[in-house]
Amino acid sequence: TSKSEIKLELNVSRVEVVKEQVIDESEVKRIEYRQRKVEKGFQNVDGVLESLVFSETRPQIALIIAATTVTKGDFEDGIRAARASIDFHEERVSLTQTKVLCAKLKELDSKGYHAIAIVRGGGIDSNTDVDKPEVIETVVGLKTPFISGVGHQPEKIFLRQVADKWTPTPQG
Q1: Over the stretch 7-19, which tens digit does the pLDDT of each residue have?
Q2: Which of 121, 125, 117 is nearest to 155 (CA)?
Q3: Of 4, 38, 91, 161, which one has the fewest beta carbons inside 10 Å?
Q4: According to the model, what pLDDT value does residue 113 have?
């Protein structure tokens, strides 16, 4: 009888610890809402507004601006020229009161605006006001094209993923 033997040698030169990623209920809801928006389709906000301007119809845009924001000055500088062709209707709303914000979005959706925009400066993260699942769900359900003018370019803001158009503040 012959004996066989296999010898394995394992040399560990590096150990990496992989951070466990936990997906909470809010993140699961956001993923579901993003999928609903993809299925519903994104509206071409630029095309809608351009066609109105070229047909000599003044676009009507509802602007939701945080009740206590300093963004207004920066935003005004950016839209001064646009006011020649577009009518902006400002609504001051506390963006930290989710139910109030959702109610305002639904109200504006029923008024026949050509677009609804939320404008808020930077310094937020994905766990604050506009990124709450209730707000995301409301935005996904809007019939009116939606513009997110929330946050600065590098900030990870989920609202952008369900907006028909998004632009960073203040330069956008």
Answers
A1: 777 776 676 666 5
A2: 125
A3: 4
A4: 97
Residues with Cβ within 8 Å of residue 43, at least 6 apart in sequence: 145, 146, 164
Distance CA 163, CA 34 (A): 10
Q: Token digits for 94? A: 């506390």
The string of pLDDT tens digits covering residues 53-66 is 999 999 999 988 87
3-state secondary structure the chain: CCCCCCCCCCCCCCCCCCCCCCCCHHHHHHHHHHHHHHHHCCCCHHHHHHHHHHCCCCCEEEEEEECCCCHHHHHHHHHCCHHHCCEEEEEEECCCCHHHHHHHHHHHHCCCCCEEEEEECCCCCCCCHHHCHHHHHHHHCCCCCEEEEECCCCCCCCHHHHCCEECCCCCC
- Tell me the C-alpha distance between 133 and 144, whole Å: 19
pTM over 0.70: yes
